């Protein structure tokens, strides 16, 4: 193994987790074989909204069918922020009283395998009296709209307002542009769907739950409260997890039902979500409507934003956080990186007859970024200016950092205009402008679009308590254990599911311990062995878990020095650590010798030093408001105006995520995040019929981009270390997914800016683009002089 | 139930199946070959790609009974395959996997691509892998890895004039 010139921090170490997957020897939940295992198929509502009047079990199989009645003992978890203004309806594992979305579980059927379970599910009859479905989150707030929950004054989970500065002053602004923008609903689409295997272990008297999850410890807490079991009688094990992206970090009704059933039957039960279930009934994402007015002066200085943000949150709040985080993050991120000081945003988090909304890579911010960056381009267009000039004029400079935004975020370190300029240069902005003048031989039209994003990460107690979060993920933990031969096992509370923690956390430990990463194992995903932690989400792992690993390793190092010095007959301050040894001026002793003394030869220890080299510690950054990664995305597209087909010709990102532990992994996260962002921008959507039927239920009608659709991204790094984290790291897992809808929409709009095309809704499918071009062309033909201005 | 015999990774196996069972389910559930993954079970994602009689095939789309007497190779059967070994090394070096769920199917399809032709351009590789979904990587590392493996296997197999 080659050590990076600067040590393990910053080395593009190849990943430890690759070998097993390359052999097909990874172990995902569905791969687990337990003796006597039975499979479950769910009976689901095929009606979006209705009164559930009866569920009939087949007489010959009644003991293998479980309904709401059978699980009436399961406690309903209160979900959502701890705010009096937040309403939420009870979300039991099985619908009772009413069904509120197509796909809502109504019953579970157990059989020897999935096919037989599905046969049984077909024989369960469900009677539902249909009610009008609520499917549009703006119409849902009309006084005469059908209500999801009796007793609610309207369909909003919560209505809230973000105000800052003097929004009343905006009425007099010379430029006031009103736009309505929409980012549609999609699925999270981990390639491995959800899955759970649960059984009651009679010997240990505990419920064992194998779960494809991003956070086993928090899930155990949810299971314990719902099932009425003490936490020491529940063990949650997350084996290899085939992607999550936010979609595996909430307590879902199916998982709760399986765990509950496992407590009642003498065999292990398994449910592996199929793709149809995933698309209709897993965590749904996005679906924002922005009805905004942006104000500017005639020189292009942006003054403020007013209006409404609607989030279609689906039928229920998912434990623990519920959907308000989506809305508040969208609203708070609306000013982007700009000096926008006046804000008046009403937010509406709306219940509809769709699957519940949950977090998905970027949470709230892809929509906010799409909204503000589209508006900036529209202001530029209205003023006849280059969009990049309006950005240059309004962007917060490094001299202004730290900067408190009107949305209440504190930008910490970096150089935002530098990222903008790098992206402009790398995309060849002026060359694209020149090429646009000559036109394309194939009749397509070229456009270039820019979008800036920032990504809050490493936020701890200060931020989560501000959000009134029910669970406050303000720290992470690491247990470092040096074994008698001097090798190291580190248990962490985060949950690797593609992020490469087995490698990057080992690099941090290697750096601190002066040990080769080959001698270090990172373990996670088992509540029985790992210290409590919150899991992997919100771009938090490298900041929190990296910090905890560093801290625990330093405590181990102290003890190694103490014992090593004693063995060398030196004083602890006269020794140093290098390559797995403690060295004094005259000699050295290996970690193996020290660890042996600490573990199995206590007579060699100095007086008063306890045996064992084992430490658990926790870590939170010294400022818990968060550290911000950021960057500028720039895209060049070619659009076929008649068909609306979009080809991405070039895609550049200029980013800064502080210190990189492993640049190879960082680049992989950026490229992968952008691929998902391109999906949001151009392809992925779950539309609904008027009756609330989801219309994308297979990969034939839900478009996930493939190798032909995703370009290799040109990535430029800057590195401004964070001031409040270990090594200056910032989290960066989500940034790639935030800006593509904005950058690509701006590029498409740019292609047709001469006719004033309106690009205001994602995904920008060929139909939406060609419709927008056709509409702009006919408006332009009708009023040529005005539209050309 | 029907009893069928198939050759799986070089071994003749007899297994009793229901006529409606997919080959993927039989490999995974009855033969414990869990390296064949299921991402959609309707023929789009490519996670279940295996080889049947030397051709890359979606195991979720064929019934086990249709595979009677056929020669089946799964990722577990490619441990010592020289082309797969080259691909593995380049996948590792190019960071061509994150969660690893798509990886077995991706490797089998990439190997099929290399055995059928010599993809010489990025476009060839992207088209050749168009039916293999990866949700994590954004494909860039995969494409680089397959191109590098194509280079290497071509130069070792037949020196191009
Ligand atoms: S599982 Fe066979 S193609 Fe998706
Ligand atoms: S590595 Fe996760 S799907 Fe490809």
From TrEMBL, chain A:
It comes from Rhodoplanes roseus. GO terms for molecular function: iron ion binding; oxidoreductase activity. PANTHER family: ALDEHYDE OXIDASE 1-RELATED (PTHR11908:SF132), XANTHINE DEHYDROGENASE (PTHR11908). This is Aldehyde oxidase/xanthine dehydrogenase a/b hammerhead domain-containing protein. Pfam families: Ald_Xan_dh_C (PF01315), MoCoBD_1 (PF02738), MoCoBD_2 (PF20256). It comes from the Bacteria. Keywords: Molybdenum, Oxidoreductase. Residues 23-132 form the Aldehyde oxidase/xanthine dehydrogenase a/b hammerhead domain. InterPro entries: Ald_Oxase/Xan_DH_a/b, Ald_Oxase/Xan_DH_a/b_sf, Ald_Oxase/xanthine_DH-like, AldOxase/xan_DH_MoCoBD1, AldOxase/xan_DH_MoCoBD2, AldOxase/xan_DH_Mopterin-bd_sf. Its cofactor is Mo-molybdopterin cytosine dinucleotide.
UniProtKB/TrEMBL annotation, chain B:
InterPro entries: 2Fe-2S-bd, 2Fe-2S-bd_dom_sf, 2Fe-2S_ferredoxin-like_sf, 2Fe-2S_ferredoxin-type, 2Fe2S_fd_BS, Beta-grasp_dom_sf, Diverse_Oxidoreductases. The keyword Transmembrane does not apply. Residues 2-78 form the 2Fe-2S ferredoxin-type domain. It comes from the Bacteria. The keyword Iron applies. Pfam families: Fer2, Fer2_2. One of its GO terms (molecular function) is 2 iron, 2 sulfur cluster binding. Keywords: 2Fe-2S, Iron, Iron-sulfur, Metal-binding, Oxidoreductase. This is (2Fe-2S)-binding protein. It comes from Rhodoplanes roseus.
